[in-house]
Structures are given as structure tokens and as C-alpha cells.
Amino acid sequence: MGFRRVVLMVLLVYAGLVGLLYFGQERLLFLPEMGGRELISSPADRGLHYETVWLETEDGERLHAWWVPHPQPLAVLHFSHGNAGNLSHRLDSVEMFHDLGLSVLLYDYRGYGRSSGRPDEAGIEIDALTAWSWLIDQAGVAPAQVVLFGRSLGGAVAARLAAELAPAAQPGALILESTFTSVPDLAAELYWWLPARRLARIQLDARAALAVADQPTLIVHSRDDEIVPFAHAGRLLEAAPGRAKLLVIEGSHNTGFLRSRQAYRAGLADFLAAVFSSDHHSRVDKMERFPNELIEFRRDHYD
Fold this sequence. Notes:
CATH topology: Rossmann fold
Number of helices: 12
CATH class: Alpha Beta
Structural class: alpha/beta
Mean pLDDT: 89
CATH superfamily: Alpha/Beta hydrolase fold, catalytic domain
Strand content: 15-25%
Strand order of the largest sheet: 1-2-4-3-5-6-7-8-9
């Protein structure tokens, strides 16, 4: 095989990968089939009362959701999950949030689980807003009592929703767990040998959203995260100066919250207690109580 032919084959393969990255972004990022679309369990299996809710989006999709009310809720959590699996794979988190005194609305994006449609950037943002509207309009929850929570890709969805709602309907708090700054930033790191940043059509820019949103924010990230490097957490913290704290945990991207269960739970509990305390501090007071700060919990402190 001649040198020119080898070079030509390499260029063709490279061009094919560039085309795949550009035209196949949705398939690379949104993975509803990973783990399966069938529900494997329900909150009832954890001893939790729940209701099945169907959310109708403005563009005609039907989203499957679970409403898990707490009898005496400290606040209400709007749960945006990651890019794979379905809501039935998140019951460890639902149970933990319930134990922390939170009612939870957990929904599947379009194309995930039993939800109709196909996922794309604009669509999942509509889905998050639809779930928010159900909490406010149907469940009668005040915006200031809602915690927007997102894990991994869901963190970018939650941050974008907070920015869209500001300042008219500001949520009470925002929690971003294992979240990237933006898809182009992460793609440039994962595919460093391709012009990934220029090819990225999907943005999901959490960092830009944090600069707009204005609520107490907790960023949770593990130094061991093998998918979204820990440096993303620091950049997110910098994007919300004076309005965020960083809770450092241990463990992998998908299981850090389980490996660091006690430390993770303690950090969330402290944050929620400060934001939703019963002493009726004003939002300004709450913001002053949340300076830009790093909180590092180590698992052995609790073992």
C-alpha cells in the first residue's frame, strides 16, 4: 500500500469522524436506550407514596413523571436527570431527597422511558419548563419553594431553566451535580484530536446560565469524576461569584453520591437548611450567607 493511499485513507476516516460528530450529536449525547426504556422499579418499592403524572408540552409531546410528595416538605425538588436511562433508575436519589424532607417531581425527557418524542436541546429545555409549570400551576407550589436539581446533563438543563425564569419567577435554590460547563467545552476535552468545539451544535451552556440566574446555588462534584473533569466545577463556581458553594465528594461520575452518601447527604442538608430555614430571612440575607466557598467532605470523616 503506497504512502499516498495510506494518507488518503486516514483523511477519509478523519472526515467520517468529523461528520459523525457533527451530524450525530443527538445520538452521541442523548442515550435513552442505555439502561433500557422499560421501568425497572417505582417509588412504591422504596415505601414511598407517589402519583404518576403526565405532562403535556407546548409542542405536543407527552412526558411521564412521578410526583413523590412529602407530608411536611421543607421544599420541593424539580429533578432533571442525566443523559441515559429513565426515571426509574433514580430511586436512590429520590429516596435520599425524601429523607431530607423534600417533595420530588421527577420527569423523563422526551424520548426517554415512557415519554413520547425524540430528545434534542430545544426539546428537553421545553420539557424542564413544562415540569416547572406543573409544579407552579397544578401542584400550587410557590417558586421560592422550588429547588431546581440536575445531575450531569440535567445540571445544564436546570441551570438553563433557572436563567430562563430569572428574575420574574426565581426558584428558591439550584443544585448542580457532576455538571459540565457546556457541551462544547466537554467535547473539546473528550475529542481533543477533532475540531469538536467548532462542530458542536448543541450548547447546553451551564456556565453562561449561572451568570444570569440569581439564587443560592450548590455545585456538587467529585475529584474522581472520570467523565466530567473536576475543573468544570471550579469554572461553574467562578461563573456565580458570591452566589454558590462547591461541595466536593468522592467516587465516580455516576456513583459518587452513593459512595459519599453520608457526606453528600450532610452537605445537602446544610445547604437546604440555610436556604429554607423557618426564620424567614430575606433573599438578600440568604445570598450574604452563601459566599463563594468550597466545602470538602471526605468519606472517612463519616465512616
